[in-house]
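Hi R.,

As promised on Friday, here is the backbone we talked about, encoded as structure tokens. Could you run it through your design pipeline when you get a chance and send me back a sequence?
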């Protein structure tokens, strides 16, 4: 197995809702484990998410959890997720869904380096960057 890098997002009681939203954006298979399951090692609300993993057909993996009691949580200031590639249709659709109900900080448009780029904060306070790579001549 090769090494991979996956974003891991912490929430305070919204992990299930957020991951179901991300599944609606990206598709794929969502696995949810709660603090109430026998594998849980932390206390906390038994219905909250101890670990969630979304694996998409595009090869993305996104992980998340609800923050256990007693652990600090600083929403949105410690993570940005970057989506990039040359599949403009898919990336524009992701952008539309992620920015809906959120805040656009940089509109998705052609930049001086030639790519289309945009940045937003989704309705859960997570920062996203989308870069559509310019076709090479």
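Update: got your reply. Pasting your designed sequence below so it's all in one thread:
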């Amino acid at each position: 197995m090769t090494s991979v890098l996956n974003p891991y997002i912490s929430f305070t009681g919204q992990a299930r809702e957020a991951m179901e939203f991300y599944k609606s954006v990206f598709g794929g298979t969502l696995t949810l484990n709660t603090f109430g399951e026998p594998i849980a090692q932390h206390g906390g609300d038994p219905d909250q998410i101890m670990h969630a993993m979304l694996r998409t057909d595009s090869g993305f993996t996104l992980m998340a959890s609800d923050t256990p009691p007693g652990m600090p949580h600083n929403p949105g200031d410690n993570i940005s997720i970057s989506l990039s590639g040359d599949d403009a249709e898919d990336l524009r659709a992701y952008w539309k869904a992620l920015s809906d109900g959120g805040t656009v900080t940089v509109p998705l448009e052609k930049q001086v380096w030639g790519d289309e780029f945009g940045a937003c904060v989704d309705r859960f306070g997570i920062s996203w960057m989308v870069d559509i790579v310019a076709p090479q001549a």
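One thing I noticed while checking it: The CA atoms of residues 81 and 118 lie 12 Å apart.

Thanks again,
M.
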